[in-house]
Amino acid sequence: MSKRKIIIDTDPGQDDAVALLLALASPDELDVLGITCVAGNVPLSLTQKNARIVCEVAGKTDVPIFAGCDAPMRRPLVTAEHVHGKTGLDGPELFEPTMPLAGDNAVDFIVETLRREPAGSVTLCTLGPLTNIATAFDRAPDIIPKLRELVMMGGAYFEVGNITPAAEFNIFVDPEAAEIVFHSGVPLVVMPLDVTHKVLATKDRVAALRALGSKVGVFTAEMLDFFERFDVAKYGSDGGPLHDPCVIAYLLKPELFQGRHINVEIETESKLTLGMTVADWWRVTDRTPNAMFMGDVDADGFFALLTERIARL
Ligand code: RIB
Ligand code: CA
């Protein structure tokens, strides 16, 4: 299988960090052209720092990291320190990264890369609010048909919301950006809470990562030990949901996931349901399908892949 060129847009966040590690541990399949950071779980100053920390922990400091948008397109930023802690990477002992930021022009990097690379060769992997992506699409609509695919973590249907009763965090933070992306015509694959709530980092699964005994294995286990507490307290679940790594796992083993190609619209007006992904799962409308919306996952297969790859770092 030829290497797949990807750009990862992210707001680390412990689950983003695990997704980054999974991608960086898979150089035979994935060519990470760059990492673009966006404000989300924590402010941009921290998401870009956290991305650099993760790359240094993985020993992959040759990947260019860019800072992007520090606020949603038309709304004030909403963050999630209550989930990720003040640093956004609470759990392991952190350090001041030494690798430099490649620039604060993440949107330009996305546009220039898509214009440079052959049409259909680059996949965007989005792990946070879609502000950088929508800004790039607005600034340079010519890059949209050049994309191979956009694989995102975001939205929810049967699982409803996690930041409000109706909305999932990534979409809720910047619903206008999400509307631009879902209406862009780009081939979309969506990993909603319906799937990510099925990949729980249970005690045994975290223990298997810690038992690797490597720096990265222990670092990952310490992040998940912290990250789980919010979901365990809220849902009574047996561990934290590994939302963002589902995006990377899909690129590596798509057969782990099942879904439907359906229409998904974004609520951008209602105060009550702002940011809701209105997914026509039962095809009761004549709206045009615009997304492969995932509904199920082989959780054991997912964690076998994740653990095997983390062991490589
Ligand atoms: O709702 C889960 C999503 O919001 C994940 O991407 C998590 O990192 C946060 O960004
Ligand atoms: Ca994220």
Verbal overview:
The structure is a single chain. It is globular and about 50 Å long. It has twelve helices and twelve strands. The chain has helices spanning 14-24, 44-58, 81-84, 106-116, 131-139, 169-173, 175-182, 193-196, 203-210, 215-235, 245-252, 299-310, and strands spanning 4-10, 30-37, 65-67, 122-126, 147-153, 188-191, 200-201, 240-241, 257-262, 264-266, 277-279, 291-297. It is α/β, with parallel strands linked by helices and 313 residues long. The strands form three sheets. It has an eight-stranded mixed beta sheet with strand order 3-2-1-4-5-6-12-9, with helices on both faces. It has a two-stranded antiparallel sheet with strand order 7-8. It binds alpha-D-ribofuranose and calcium ion. Alpha-D-ribofuranose is lined by residues 11, 13, 15-16, 40-41, 127-128, 153, 162, 168-170, 243-244. Alpha-D-ribofuranose binds at residues 11, 13, 15-16, 40-41, 127-128, 153, 162, 168-170, 243-244.
